[in-house]
Specification:
The chain is α/β, with parallel strands linked by helices and 293 residues long. The protein is built from 11 helices and 8 strands.
């Protein structure tokens, strides 16, 4: 679905939420949902197009926006995905400054570094000098534990650690499964669940033992009548669907019906919107918050 179609569907106008009172209404709804154990967020916060509609402070320079906007984001939403997956697992400089900006009540979801679960880096601009090179950290439990422990040492009490896999489940090696089992025995991790087919027994057991947090696509969440596991926490992410316009589906009555009639949510449910259209993201979050109350 094209951006223009989305705008027509939602009758999008920046005036709907660019006034302080509009943001205040969003904050109130978000707080109501948080009290119910539902945490709304996005897959990032660094979007220039959110200025005036979601960010009201003045940022004189681009660097000011990138360094300080997370502080304002926390006033509006209680969680965000922090994507460090394209940085080497040894790189933690970014976290030192970030930890000083995050409130103790904030729930960051860190995407674990790509090099821990992939033998080599893809040839993509995002990986810069690492593109095409072999990963020296592949399936390295010690490096994975060190990465998590460095974040924990920065006093982020509600941090979660997630693996968003880009492999089909039938292509996952036994080595990778052993890596997840060994790591989850020491640290609770979130892991994306199969988009199709059955859930592997090791994953069900890890979730039931509260050592793994399931990450579901929006489609999987809406289409599944029930799930073969019991979890205290659940992550729902549109990023796994990789389909434009899915937010339109999810910001509809289908969400409310699913939650009220077909599924008892766990103690905490984290819902993240993929920002395929940065300009529309605040409006979609606002409408989603209305649907869920």
């Amino acid at each position: 679905m094209k951006q223009r179609d989305l705008q027509e569907t939602f009758h999008f106008s920046t005036e709907q939420i660019d006034a302080p009172e509009g943001l205040q209404q969003l904050r109130e709804r978000v707080q109501i949902l948080k009290n119910k154990g539902i945490f709304l967020g996005a897959h990032s916060w660094r979007f220039q197009s959110w200025k005036k509609s979601f960010y009201l402070e003045k940022y004189e320079r681009e660097v000011d926006f990138f360094q300080r906007s997370i502080e304002e984001y926390q006033k509006n939403l209680p969680t965000v995905v922090i994507d460090q997956s394209r940085l080497p697992s040894a790189n933690v400089d970014f976290f030192n400054g970030l930890s000083r900006q995050l409130n103790a009540s904030f729930y960051p979801l860190f995407k674990m570094p790509y090099d821990l679960t992939n033998k080599e880096f893809p040839i993509e601009p995002a990986f810069a000098n690492q593109a095409g090179k072999a990963s020296e950290s592949y399936l390295d439990i010690e490096k994975a534990l060190a990465f998590i422990e460095r974040i924990q040492a920065l006093e982020m009490p509600h941090a979660r650690y997630a693996f968003f896999l880009d492999k089909e489940w039938q292509n996952i090696s036994n080595e990778l499964i052993d890596f997840f089992l060994t790591l989850s025995a020491q640290k609770v991790i979130a892991i994306s669940c199969p988009l199709v087919g059955v859930y592997p027994d090791w994953l069900i057991q890890g979730i039931n033992n509260q050592r793994m947090i399931p990450i579901l696509s929006f489609t999987k969440f809406l289409e599944s009548p029930d799930f073969p596991f019991s979890s205290d926490e659940l992550v729902i992410s549109s990023q796994l669907d990789r389909r434009e316009g899915l937010e339109v589906l999810f910001a509809s009555d289908a969400v409310r019906k699913k939650i009220q009639e077909n599924l008892i949510l766990p103690k905490r449910t984290f819902i993240y919107l993929e920002n395929f259209s940065d300009q529309l993201a605040p409006e979609l979050i606002s409408r989603l918050s209305k649907s869920l109350i």
